[in-house]
Amino acid sequence: MHILSAAQTHELDQATIEEQGIPSVELMERAAGAFAEWFARHFTPHAAGETLVLCGPGNNGGDGLAVARLLYQAGYAMRVALLPADKQSADWQHNRRRLPKAVPVAEISAESLPHIMPGAVVIDALFGTGLTRPLAGLPATVVAHLNTAAARVVAVDIPSGLFADAPQPADSIIVRAQHTVSFGLPKLAFLLPQNAAFVGQWHLKEIGLSPHFLANAATDWHYTDAATVAGALPPRPKFSHKGTFGHALLLAGSRGKMGAAVLSAGACLRGGVGLLTAHIPGCGYDIFQISQPEAMCLTDTQADFISELPELKPYQAVGIGPGLGQEAASLEVLRQLLKAADKPLEKTGQPLPLVIDADALNLLGSHRELLKLLPENTVLTPHPKEFERLTEPARDDYHRLELLRDFAIQYRCLVVLKGAYTCLATPTGELHFNSTGNAGMATGGSGDVLTGLLLALRAHAQIPAFEAVRLGVYAHGRAGDLGAAQTGQVGLVAGDIVRHIGPALSEV
Ligand SMILES: NC(=O)C1=CN([C@@H]2O[C@H](COP(=O)(O)OP(=O)(O)OC[C@H]3O[C@@H](n4cnc5c(N)ncnc54)[C@H](OP(=O)(O)O)[C@@H]3O)[C@@H](O)[C@H]2O)[C@H](O)CC1
Ligand SMILES: [K+]
Questions:
Q1: What is the pTM of this model?
Q2: Gene3D superfamilies this protein is in (predicted)?
């Protein structure tokens, strides 16, 4: 699914109206209808009590007026407060006329701000995607008043005061909504941690926007959902054998961190790899062989860390990092691996696929001269702190996305920035935000599981690099969601994610 800029969203509206030959108020009616339907499923008229709709002068306010009418007709007690303006949009005026006389309407002024009881339900329709500057003056006063009222706020399309697609001053006055009911496509702002307190839970409503425009819109921002990855995993042919799905090598573990190697290996096996060999320090032999009998195991001459790179010929992909530690000898192994992997393989003509995680990323961060050795399409899976070590501290979430994109382009690699809405950056500068996963996955070992799964998918000869990573990120999150459905988010551990990789992959 695409993510569009505010300007493109406006073009999308126009394209829909022209293509479908409908008046623009019809599109507003669809949006208001979708909002009212969501509202009615979340609040009974009794639970909502007297509901206040705050309306601005544009089409977001027009949506609010239409919502007030529809909810009034559905039996809700409604009142409306209008922000004064020199000019209101045509569709606003249309819906102002259609508002039943029985709904009380007040004009807002600094002296008469709407009275809001604690716990009251308020629908925020002040500003939407047409916001052109941070709120100031009366609009800012109204929003600050709303934010201190301890109301239950549901935003129409986007919380008022929030830019849909761009950074804004840190002290901007923005509605703090519990829910945001948005139309058509997710807004970039919803996917950034810095906006979570404004957006609350967001819900997407289909309003029949032009599929033709959506398919052809030029954007570097994408949202990976179930439809995106459907069919990405080729069916296993009847006459396949274990060689068909690749032989992966995992370099992982050190004393006290063998669990990372075990979890990562488990995920790789559940990710459908044909064969897995793990190269681990001597101390981990019994632990690893007992807990992962399906994998083969090579032990390093060092007991506590990895100091040797095995012969790479047998392998179709290599993962390095989980539980690795940062010994000087392990750094040398990483250096040798990067050099060896950069030669094109006989079979594919491509460099050996690599997945680099955890301490291997930290080693890259502390020895940045190694970055230029990264073979094309290498997969890096940093969390924001690890990413910062590879680049620089980000000013805000938008700046971090900029750094991420630049890094992926400069080093021609696939960078998976982990977090809620994990973001995959590609060498061509696209950003793909993931839709699956939950806060239960913020637990030790979760990243090791992702590395193992990505390793399995990169070893698969029939899945191109980018598709493999996008699929792996999606399936990892989905496995976490399936796991949390059983354990709850609090009780979820990384092993639960491993156990649900199979079901997650069979869904796609
Ligand atoms: N496809 C869809 O998503 C649909 C969306 N709909 C709804 O329409 C809004 C977008 O409506 P639009 O009229 O473009 O914009 P807004 O309602 O957000 O606001 C525009 C007015 O607000 C003024 N403005 C902008 N910034 C400020 C500010 N900081 N302070 C005060 N006033 C501001 C602006 O005037 P200017 O001064 O900038 O000229 C406009 O008067 C979308 O979010 C949806 O809710 C459709 O209903 C259906 C399809
Ligand atoms: K709004």
A1: 0.96
A2: 3.40.1190.20, YjeF N-terminal domain
